[in-house]
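INFO  loader      accepted 1 record
INFO  loader      residues=505
INFO  predictor   begin
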Amino acid sequence: MTTPYSMEELVSLCKRRGFIFPASEIYGGINGFWDYGPLGTELKNNLRDAWWHDMVHCPPMGPDGEPLSIVGIDSSIIQNPKVWEASGHVGGFNDPMVDCRESKARYRADHLLCLGVKGDTSGQIYAYIENDDDSLASAQKKLEKYVKRTLSSEEINTCALTELSVEELAITVGPDTKTVGTLTEPRQFSLMFDTTVGATGGEENKAYLRPETAQGIFLNFMHGVDPMRVKVPFGIAQIGKAFRNEVTPRNFIFRSREFEQMELEWFCHEDEAQQWYAFWCDYRKKWWQKMGLTTSNLQMRQHDSDELAHYAKEGCGTFDIEYKFPFTDPGYGELEGVAHRGNYDLSRHTEFSGKKINYFDQQKNERYTPHVIEPSAGLSRGTLALLCEAYTPDDRPSKVFMKFNPRIAPIKAAIFPLVNKNGMPEIATKLHEEMRKQHVVQYDAKQSIGKRYARMDEAGTPYCFVIDGDTLEDNTITVRDRDTATQERINIDQAVAFLNDKLNQ
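INFO  predictor   done
INFO  writer      dumping tokens
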């Protein structure tokens, strides 16, 4: 089933209602960076807090029925540059890039495909962006205009831009131009943001903004073992920002240059690694379902051998938990990866630092370097998935409502006086003050009750409480359910308990 709305509609609502909007917008923005408004901040924080609660404070039971041991850290964004040499990022963390001299556009070389006429080695070649139907249609239209006839699929040859020779690249037309030969040869483009530390610049003071949060966890492995007195298997968790100089940021906050990760490194014995790998794959998919993502929009996909990261040795692997975003429908896009990293990272940091990073098992009288299972979820992507899942077109006045799981909804309830007189505002204010002691709630007395409902529907507020004329007589209020738009009367003295009960279901 195709998505019943466009990405443009969702982005418009996010900006209009204060979820997410371009960073530095008054200056024209900056590509790949986004600001979170009041509702977006609450939504993202609620997702972050849910992950921390379910992974660190109250972790799941393990395969043996025993509670897992997981501790948290918050490592520095800037580390010693040698960290990134050891991890393999310096020199290896790059993408092939192609620039268009005419349009000034920049593309991932491995994301460009080319169309040409089969058997014609001298005619022009037309590049388009992979998985972009509009770009493909444009390339085919330009090719048919060039040969002055309609082409059947059997007559068209498709190949990757990276397969072209220098001579073929010289007769290639880029996706956003009509001129041949404007595309540069592919070259490696570093994804690392570099900076300098100290009063003077230069290579000797060069440092990097971290491209991932994982290495900070590996550096602090012994700080988790010794002071916390934990035993393998155990986990170290972290939520924090990472930075990647993406060639082509795209699809709203799906691929941006500044993002946040929710990451766990689970340390275990090599003999138990596959068991824990299977456990975390299963648990993490179920967790996203618990957050409100429907089963039909989620899938597990195992990486092929040519997709595996540099740390993946024999017996290791990665599963992606993928979500069907509007811009990937009917396909899926990565939401979270669960990787078996082996003992690559701890071994590399031992090698580069000269410090022993290992574990001694007193019961087994064995010293070893643990293997690592890494569930790594994008907090920014998770927020986007929740927004996509919640967006629900409807025939109500607002035309849409955000069907958030109440646990992660930015605003839990709204309190309205039906009219701004006859003592109703005073009663509504008192109820608002009582509810806000426990939850994020909003008081709203402006405009008609219908417009107030519409605002709360677009914010994804699960319940609205209305104080009206009957409240003055019998102490009852109206409660409106966001999802069904149905209403019921309850005693105002039970309002807080009513909300707590609904939110805890």
